[in-house]
Amino acid sequence: MDKNINITLKVWRQKGPKEKGAFETYKLNDVSQGSSFLEMLDVLNEQLIREGKEPVAFDHDCREGICGMCSLYINGHPHGPDSAVTTCQLHMRKFSDGATITVEPWRSAGFPVIRDLMVDRYAYDKIIQAGGFVSVNTGGVPDANAIPISKKDADLAMDAAACIGCGACAAACKNGSAMLFISAKVSQLALLPQGRTEASRRVKAMIAKMDELGFGNCTNTRSCEVECPKEVSISNIARLNREFIVAKLQD
Amino acid sequence: MWLLNSSIGRKLIMSLSGIFLILFLLFHASMNVAAVFSEEAYNAICGFLGANWYAVAGTLVLAAGFMIHIVYAIWLTLQNRRARGRKRYAVNVRPKGVEWASQNMFVLGLIVLCFLGLHFTQFWYKMMFAELTGHHEVELGGAIVSAHDGAAFIRYYFSNIIVVALYLVWYAALWFHLTHGFWSALQTVGWNNTVWLKRWQVIANIFATLICAAFAFVTVFFYLESIL
């Protein structure tokens, strides 16, 4: 049964990208276990505003696990202790009465802190802009079933396409590597005939952009796939490696 | 050159040099086991691997493999630390499904390397190196033995319990390093998928256990022989 709990929050507060940050501790009483983690933060912010303090800045948008905006490193896990959910889908029933919850922003050189718990994840957009697309000439829309695609490939591509680009993979990685994200974005297109045409150009451009932005080198610890809210598999990273090595050998 | 300036290229070099070293370990372990069954056979291998041009050439290739693996490990680790950013998390949890070895490969590699130094001063320096500098007989624990008499070296060093314990620690570190390194190398080459990931991990565990067990078996065998 859900009940109301009292919790202690240790939240990272940082005024701006160049400012020095520190943890602040807040007590929050009578939090419904039926509320989501972000609703709990909303309650905290209302309390802070009433006390005349600055509310905690955090990213959020759809609050249903599809936009990839929410982040937060909660008690040592990106998107909190629950598996296969984003922070907005995390519920307070995962925490018990009297718990101390530590909330940190993503920490990776690729994701600098903007303020408090908000980080700049524009790096992922830059990687997508480098090649994570299919070029098409506009005109008549072709029939979706005109090109036969095996069920297996369609499923694998769909699993890769589940990536919402939230950044949990790079945040979880001890190497600050963005490989799971890029492997998902490369795989979802490389597996389909429409994406094959530009496959080698795409993988080279995206890896070059990733390296340029200073993300780390993957050492296959698997932290990314374990923490991924969409359970994207590291078999995509094997495919990315394969695609990249083959593309480079063809040059 | 993409092997140097792309992350996957650097990882590829790490993986290929690792596979090369794994194959060497397989050879070394098989060679050691021969000593248990026939010391003459073992000494024949030692003679074959003495100061001959092919053995020296092989050693140089091997040394190059080690150097590449080590230099790239340092380079990649430094880059990865930089990519992690200056601020660290206050709370760190190793999630379920993440092997301890996978997050400590550099430290494990460093331990393996330190013991390699010990191993070199005990064996290689007095065997191939001594021969290269023109000494065909070396002093070993008060006795003069041929630089080809590998069995005498094994019997001498592995009769010391401290040396035996140190070598066993070495094999344990190596075991952890190999269980991750083996499948990780194949993943980096791209020879993996959801089905093969589990298979490679099982094969890696079996392979690492076999190699380390073979090394440990020889070490313990000669220790027991010395006290019995």
Q: Given this structure, which CATH class of the largest domain in chain A is correct?
A: Mainly Alpha
Terminal Cα span of chain A: 62 Å
Main sheet of chain A: which strands, in order across?
Answer: 2-1-5-3-4
Shape of chain A: elongated
Which chains have the largest interface? A-B, 52 and 44 residues
Topology:
The complex is a heterodimer of chains A (251) and B (228).
Chain A: E1 4-13, E2 22-32, H1 37-50, E3 73-74, E4 77-78, E5 100-104, E6 113-115, E7 118-119, H2 122-131, H3 151-161, H4 168-172, H5 179-190, H6 193-196, H7 199-212, H8 223-227, H9 235-250
Parallel strand pairs in A: 1-5
Antiparallel strand pairs in A: 1-2, 3-4, 3-5, 6-7
Helix pairs in contact in A: 2-7, 3-5, 5-7, 5-9, 7-9
Chain B: H1 2-5, H2 7-37, H3 39-48, H4 53-84, H5 100-103, H6 105-122, H7 128-132, E1 137-140, E2 143-146, H8 150-157, H9 161-189, H10 194-227
Antiparallel strand pairs in B: 1-2
Helix pairs in contact in B: 2-3, 2-4, 2-9, 2-10, 6-9, 9-10
Compact description:
Chain A has about 250 residues and is an alpha+beta fold. In chain A, about 35% of the residues lie in helices and about 15% in strands. In chain A, helix 5 packs antiparallel against helix 7.
How would you describe what is shown here?
The complex is a heterodimer of chains A (251) and B (228). Chain A has 251 residues and is of the alpha+beta class. Chain A has 2 domains: 4-114, Ubiquitin-like (UB roll) (Roll); 122-136 and 146-250, Alpha-helical ferredoxin (Fumarate Reductase Iron-sulfur Protein, Chain B, domain 2, Orthogonal Bundle). In chain A, 36% of the residues lie in helices and 14% in strands. Chain A contains 9 helices and 7 strands; from the N terminus they run E-E-H-E-E-E-E-E-H-H-H-H-H-H-H-H. Chain A has a 5-stranded mixed β-sheet with strand order 2-1-5-3-4. Chain A has a two-stranded antiparallel sheet with strand order 6-7. The model of chain A has no long low-confidence stretch (mean pLDDT 95). Chain B is mainly alpha-helical and 228 residues long. Chain B has a single domain, classed as 3 helical TM bundles of succinate and fumarate reductases. A two-stranded antiparallel ribbon of chain B has the order 1-2. In chain B, helix 2 (7-37) packs across helix 9, helix 2 (7-37) packs parallel to helix 10 and helix 9 (161-189) runs antiparallel to helix 10. The longest helix of chain B has 34 residues, at 194-227. In chain B, 30% of the residues are buried. Classes of the chains: A alpha+beta (251), B mainly alpha (228). At the A-B interface, helix 7, helix 8 and helix 9 of A face helix 2, helix 4 and helix 9 of B.
